[in-house]
Amino acid sequence: MSDDTLLSVHDLTKHYPITEGLLAREVGRVRAVDGISFDIRRGETLGLVGESGCGKSTAARSLLRLEPPTDGEIRFDGEIVGNQTDDERKRFRRRTGIIFQDPTSSFDPRLSIGESVAEPLALHGLRDHDRRRSLVETMLAEVGLSADDYDRYPHELSGGQKQRVALARALVSNPELLVADEPVSALDVSVEAEILALIERLQTTFGLSILLISHDMSVVRDVCDRVAVMYLGEIVERGPTEAVFADPQHPYTRALLASMTTPDPTRRGERAELSGTVPDPADPPPGCRFHTRCPAVIQPPDYDFDQQVWRGILDLRIALRNRTLDTERLRTRLVTEGDAEHADEISGAELRTAIRAAHDIPDELHDANAEQVLSAALAEIVAGELATAEERLNESFATICCREQPALEETEAGHRAACHLHDVGGESSTAESVLSGQQNG
Amino acid sequence: MNEPLLSVNDLRTHFETSDGTVLAVDGVSFAVERGETVCLVGESGSGKTVACESITKLLPMPPGKLVGGRIDFDGRDLTDCSPGQLSDVRGKRIAHVFQNPQGALDPVYSVGAQLVEAIRLHRDVSKRAARERGIELLDRVGIPEAAVRFDEYPHEFSGGMKQRVVIAMALAAEPDLLIADEPTTALDVTTQASILDLLNDIKAERDMAILFVTHDLGVVAEMADRVVVMYAGKVMERGDVHDVFETPAHPYTQALLRCLPGRGERRETIGGGFPNPTDPPTGCRFHPRCPHAVEDCIGGEQPALEPANNNETHRAACVFYDEDHDTEVVQESAADRAAQPSEQSKQQTDGGHATEGGNR
Ligand code: SF4
Ligand code: SF4
């Protein structure tokens, strides 16, 4: 941690217990944020990016202690935040500010703009009414509104103007850290550009550090110095914005970048798709949490697959693990689609073909050894021995991605990523080829 | 040339509010050919959604009111149709998909039951056949294990999957036109990408036309055959998607494109605020914010849509495209935009009261 570090987050964790029954016995935990670490330097903007449900907003709320974290250490200006006295907590609140996606919900509609902005000042003990008013008026001017707006009401303002008021209120107590949670997602394109420009100007004026939370990679690229990519409660890649965008090292980051649309019709169809959805954070996948969707997931060393076919086989295995492969249903469906009258008439071979087709696996793998394993497993599935089939696939087609959780480590690109493709000694030599293959895949 | 599938002519939809009459759509014309995707693009207040919802009168009326214009759909003027006839068109020929799939699904029925209903509304088939068809449709829109999920309830589906279900329901009627209003705006980027691909695939497969409403120029570039740019209730520009993105003709379109993040360049802003919808500017509605505005822009009506670059199909509603003005003043190409910061960047602003006015 260097001297100019303002905020340092270490192993931040936020779990929500899932309880059952009258005694509220804990039966599980939603691992919304599961051990993330990062620093923010003075005057710097850090972007926290990821799909909805990845935990980015929860991370922000718990580091500001708007809800207590489950675990982890937060240092603000060198001091541990957490076991503070009331006074210290108040001071911490004053030195941080937050704005949200929907500014409307954060205002009391009965309060005038000026009263809303003045609230934090009153809370922090500034009783002199005139002084409060003059501070608020100055602040309104800073965010591009005017002193006359003091007496207007939220409903008289456009979305962009409300976001300006939200900024004024967040900054009126002169904080050092601003947390901006999706500040422009609800705004129009032209207003978005204005608000981002305003945030940048305010950052210079007030020497702010900013934690910007967004699902929008283009916003992050525009305003952040560094970026941390979150997936299912964890940070999977972290580094200077330019480096991460120019040379992403985690397959998830690559997928996010590849899903972005570009305002250029000549580059149509260059997007790549990412299959599946974010798994349930109450039951994250073992090993690398991204392995259920990762297009670059590492192949078992002794076999040779086309990458897409390997992805399909792994999907089959995951379906077995999650008990979502239902052979009875498949039989019924084959009856509906085909000529057979009754589920019993569906032959084992037909069912095996259907299972392959459902997972984009060809009728025969080109690697004979792999084909042997797969057909044996399919035979077991058809015979109803799902657990045996799962075990067979697990053992024969073992991959480190399902077994070990990758650590967030320095890559050859110079920034950090949590992916086994970068493991030293192991498959690291293939990282570049596999990752670049993903983009065309 | 064949008649277009949908042709909207001089459409005017107004709203009575306590602040006065909102001229939400104020003389808008565009057409959609069979099998093509037309994107209606604009910011909030442009009138794009109201224009779309006027077509099949989905719009609550009152407070909305169709005060003028014709809407010809497959040879029939929809403005003349009775509510019964219209609901027939809505069920069978024109389907809608909205931003929020939640609203289109009934939480108390399984998605299968809702699909079966939609299918049987369209075709007189047995329940069993409708069920088969429903599963097929779910499978087609990319719901894994469609047969299993057929009997599940809307809340058991993720946002992206719900939107797929809604698309399946829309397809049940085998519509000629799908009106999709910001269908991917509420979704994650990765989900958005796959839904856009899905829409493109089924459009090609079924020769179905899509009227796609969006504020997102990235999505427009991905989807559109042709583009209609709206601002403050008026069409500012329309044309082939490549023409509009490569040589945006109207200063508003040019400004909007400059608001987007470029590769490493700073975004620019438009400056000024959205006009008051009950009292829009005279002349060109963009004139208070336009860097090229001249005396002729200020009075009278919105300039007519004139061909840009001698291209009949690419038109802009700006005085610089009429015979009395030098077009070069406002012309720019995508290359110019990338090569040098425009004149406007000098007056780059982060807006504020003085600039982002309006009372909405
Ligand atoms: S560790 Fe494996 S599954 Fe995880 S991102 Fe890397 S390659 Fe993909
Ligand atoms: S008509 Fe005038 S104000 Fe309108 S876009 Fe053209 S130059 Fe600008």
UniProtKB/TrEMBL annotation, chain A:
UniProt GO MF annotations: ATP binding; ATP hydrolysis activity
Looking at the keywords, is Transmembrane helix present? no
Keyword flag Heme:
no
Q: Superkingdom of this entry's organism?
A: Archaea
Q: Which InterPro entries match?
A: AAA+_ATPase (IPR003593), ABC_transp_ATP-bind (IPR050319), ABC_transporter-like_ATP-bd (IPR003439), ABC_transporter-like_CS (IPR017871), Oligopep_ABC_C (IPR013563), P-loop_NTPase (IPR027417)
Record-linked PROSITE patterns? ABC_TRANSPORTER_1 (PS00211), ABC_TRANSPORTER_2 (PS50893)
Keywords, sorted A to Z: ATP-binding, Nucleotide-binding, Transport
Gene Ontology biological process terms from the UniProt entry:
peptide transport; transmembrane transport
SUPFAM superfamilies in UniProt: P-loop containing nucleoside triphosphate hydrolases
Query: By its UniProt entry, which Pfam families does this protein fall under?
Result: ABC_tran, oligo_HPY
Residue span, ABC transporter domain: 7-257
Region of interest called Disordered, as start-end residue ranges on this chain: 261-287
Q: Which family does it belong to?
A: Belongs to the ABC transporter superfamily.
What the entry lists under PANTHER family is as follows:
D,D-DIPEPTIDE TRANSPORT ATP-BINDING PROTEIN DDPF-RELATED, TRANSPORT ATP-BINDING PROTEIN
- Know the name of this protein? Dipeptide/oligopeptide/nickel ABC transporter ATP-binding protein
Could you tell me which species this protein originates from?
Halococcus morrhuae DSM 1307
From TrEMBL, chain B:
Q: Which Gene3D superfamilies match?
A: P-loop containing nucleotide triphosphate hydrolases
Q: Where in the cell is it found?
A: Cell membrane
Region annotation (Disordered) ranges: 322-360
Cellular component, GO annotation:
plasma membrane
Please name the GO terms of the biological process aspect recorded for this protein, alphabetically.
Answer: peptide transport
Q: Where is the composition biased (Polar residues)?
A: 341-350
EC code: 7.2.2.11
Q: How does it assemble?
A: The complex is composed of two ATP-binding proteins (NikD and NikE), two transmembrane proteins (NikB and NikC) and a solute-binding protein (NikA).
Write down the PANTHER family for this protein, in alphabetical order.
NICKEL ABC TRANSPORTER, ATP-BINDING PROTEIN, OLIGOPEPTIDE TRANSPORT ATP-BINDING PROTEIN APPD
Q: What is this protein called?
A: Nickel import system ATP-binding protein NikD
Q: Which organism is it from?
A: Halococcus morrhuae DSM 1307
